Amino acid sequence: MGFFTFVILTIMFWGIAPVFGKIGIQNVDPLLGLAIRSFIVSIILLATCLLTGKFASVGQVAFKDVLFIGAEGIIASLLGQFAYYYALKLGDISKVAPMFATYPAVTVIVAILFLGEKFTWNKFIGLITIIVGVILVKR
Hints:
- By secondary structure, this protein is mostly helical.
- The protein has helices at residues 3-24, 30-52, 63-90, 93-100, 103-114, 121-138.
- It folds into two domains: 3-91, no CATH class; 101-139, no CATH class.
- The chain contains six helices and no strands.
């Protein structure tokens, strides 16, 4: 399977997941909801890594890589999901999810500024399209 298959799967999973989140946190504090979600996911990941032998190579992972992966987890899985859960709890899912979907625009800007990726007209048009699309869906 190529990367595009995984992109499609990601779109489907991320498109469906907010519905479960919105239903699940109606009567649950978002912080507790995130803790429950993270606990369940962690158990599944731990079991999968143990059963597939992936932990055998953990000693070969460079400390720098651990720091960056950890930072990404804290920013996205902890802080981002925490804010997202509060937004889901307080807002309409039909407004929250499209607004949340503007994060690729931030990723493109940060990649240009910090990773030296080239700024192109196609990227500019893509950024504008993301913003206009969210505005149209939100109305």
